[in-house]
Amino acid sequence: MPELPEVQTVLDGVTEYLKDKEIRGLDCFYPGTVVKDPELAKNPFPARLNGHERRGKYMILHLSGETSLIIHLRMTGKLVQGEAMPGKSPHERACFLLSGGKKLHFIDIRTFGKIVLCKTANLGKFMPDLGIEPLSAGFTGEYLARLFAHRKTPVKNILMDQSKIAGLGNIYATEILYRSRIHPETPAGEISLPRLSKLAAETKAVLKQAIAMNGTSISDFRRVDDKSGGFQNFLQIYQKDTCPKGHEVKKIKQGGRGTFFCPVCQK
DNA sequence: CAATGATCCTGTCCGC
DNA sequence: TGCGGACAGGATCATT
Fold first, then answer.
1. Could you read off the pLDDT of A145-163 as tens digits, one per residue?
2. Which sequence positions of A are flagged as catalytic?
3. Which of A2, A67, A102, A105 has the fewest CB atoms within 10 Å of its CB?
């Protein structure tokens, strides 16, 4: 499932692919995949990419003509450039038509992904409230101490709450807690400041390393050029039977999602 | 305000 | 071999 590093990888690939091309159209093949701002002028195309940003797991592309795109891959969404996809995919939900006959395909098996096309001025209406960026300077042990204060919620649940911290999903939350030696069910408000500082530092380290490796290709994540990421080779606990120290890994459910942890290493 | 549960969707896996 | 059912899982919405 694409989380922050995977979204960053895709965004980097998409912006590189689009920088010398014009977007001439956007086809939707599945009802609901493409959402159009009712206030948008009838046809915003042709348009060019003017800028971009990532907020949590959301990609935002700023186009010419005061128009913007919000793209969310959700669980199985993929953006694949035309050359990398010779055949037809039965799961193609939308497609950007580009200059020079090129295409950018939106492939999404489970159809949860979304592409929003809106007036740039209306971005706020289409974006949810998102918490702090974990790679920002303000993401520190002290910040987490304030965020977690008096909260009895298990720490892993808060790590995955996008309105508190934007961009972490099941895989990275699981990995970060293992590397921080924190038990995923620990009530968030009970964790000491030194351990929260460790948590913040490990979060940044894991995300940076994963971005450097072009993300984690678990299930079917692929880059825009359809190549795999590399961070799955560095996972220490997610979907493992034993931790790096040889202890047996336990699997539990938290908020409907699978959590892997080591009862010996994580307290 | 916080926490929980249902919902969306389909490929994969398991048991019979 | 084939079928049904459980499962996975991010975000949203409704409910407690």
1. 999 998 889 999 999 999 9
2. 2-3, 57, 257
3. A102
